[in-house]
Write a structure and sequence with these properties.
- By secondary structure, the chain is mostly helical.
- It is built from six helices and no strands.
- The chain has helices at 6-36, 38-48, 51-65, 75-78, 82-94, 102-107.
- It starts with 5 loop residues before the first helix and ends with a helix.
Length: 110
């Protein structure tokens, strides 16, 4: 396998913050929505038990799947390589429409 130079790795690691930024924004906006709209809060409470439980479910799902290496072509390429992790995060985002919290994400502007 080819090993890229250090600048390529630095750029890839710098992308992690760009991946997390929309997730953090949606979680913050979700709390605001629940505070401002009793119907949204009722949806969240009915689906997850509480706003905190909703946030925990989203974060647990994200950190369980978004950096698990599932984006690599095979187990050996997944390793600890940042490429596999970034592709895993992309795969997680592509699956959001199938997640139980998708409706709240859409209401929060995702």
């Amino acid at each position: 396998h080819n090993v890229p130079n250090a600048l390529v790795f630095l750029d890839k690691y710098a992308q992690v913050a760009r991946i997390l930024r929309p997730l953090v924004a949606v979680l913050r906006r979700s709390v605001e929505l629940c505070d401002d709209d009793k119907h949204v809060k009722a949806l969240v409470v009915r689906s997850f038990g509480s706003v905190d439980a909703y946030q925990t479910a989203v974060l647990a799902d994200f950190f369980r799947h978004a950096f698990d290496g599932s984006g690599a072509d095979n187990f050996y390429d997944a390793g600890s390589c940042v490429d596999g992790r970034l592709t895993s995060a992309w795969n997680w985002c592509a699956q959001i429409a199938h997640k139980p919290y998708y409706v709240v994400f859409k209401l929060a502007g995702f």
